[in-house]
Amino acid sequence: MTAVPSIADLLERVPSWMGRAVEWQRLQGGLSHHIYRVDVDRVPYVLRVLEPAVSDAGLGVPPEREIANTVLAAQTVGAQVYEVLPDVPAVVIEYLPGRTLSAAEVRRPEVIPSIATACRKLHAGPAFGNDFDIFAKRAELLDVCARHDLPLPDGYLDRSSAVDTIRDALAADPLPSAPCHNDLLAENFIATSGGVRIIDYQLSGNNDPAFELGDIAAEADYDPDLVGLLAGEYFAEADETLRARVRLYQVASNVTWTLWFTVHHGLIAGPEKAFDYAAEAAEKWGQAKDALDDDPGLGRLLAAVNGRTPHP
């Protein structure tokens, strides 16, 4: 990783904080970047310092794009942006007063409608300046693994034809693209008095909104009933085709993010990182492999997303 400026140096680069009482603390939870809570005259802010090595490794959009998308998302469900330090790069954003959701909470049926509402608000907002495709990201990360001789999980490439079949089925009749977050693990949802807000736009880009839902399902380990509930809340009336679409993207999410954690473990994670990236890669691949090997379950989803009546 490149050297990150010291927190003392960073605090001096924010003009509006000069000459004021400032306290700070490192926030836990960020898997890639450096996140601080900064209290200025007892008013809390978040200082998000971006690590360019992350996007260089294919693990996020370029810093300038992440910042631009963060500014756009602030118009809907994101935190307000108060200062941009493009040379660091870093951004000062609103400290959202609320509770970070856990994976267990995201699985609660009574919470799912508020998550769907937050996604609809984001997707109805201004378009981002870049596009995102989970299958293109898989190809990109496979190339990173090959160039750096990073080991793939056992059987990963053996299932490439099944992944390609899912890709082709989803591409046959795509939904209109929308500005998507594309990495909605539970910790990126903040429950506030005004509704659920969404933070951390490291992988943001215009995308099929069904992927957003499938990614939520993958990160929170939804069963088919919870997928159906989320799809129903988002689409108002989710037929079998839409539910199947979300479930196939749930598989694609686990397939591709397996590589994200593989690359992060091999190229980015250092001894100071407490998170076990290799274990997370193995867990995601286990879930993806089970879905890809599910015969005839996978065939039913493919038939449904193509508008055919699946066989019982």
Structural commentary:
This protein is an alpha+beta fold and 312 residues long. The protein is 45% helix and 14% strand. It has twelve helices and ten strands. Strands 1-2-3-5-4 form a five-stranded antiparallel β-sheet, with helices on one face. The mean pLDDT is 93.
- In terms of DSSP E residues, the strand content is 5-15%
Structural class: alpha+beta
Q: Uncertain segments of ≥5 residues (pLDDT<50)?
A: none
Q: Please give the order of strands in the largest beta sheet.
A: 1-2-3-5-4
Radius of gyration: 20 Å
Largest sheet: 5 strands, antiparallel
Number of helices: 12
| Count of strand segments | 10
Give the integer mean of the pLDDT values. Answer: 93
How would the global form be characterised?
globular
SSE series: HEEEHHEEEHHHHEEEEHHHHH
Distance between the termini: 52 Å
Fraction in helix: 40-55%
Main features:
single chain, 312 residues
SSE topology:
Elements lengths: L6 H6 L9 E5 L7 E7 L2 E7 L2 H5 L6 H11 L7 E5 L4 E5 L4 E2 L2 H4 L5 H12 L10 H14 L12 H12 L6 E3 L8 E4 L2 E4 L6 E3 L1 H11 L4 H12 L4 H29 L8 H16 L4 H9 L7
Antiparallel strand pairs: 1-2, 2-3, 3-5, 4-5, 6-8, 7-10, 8-9
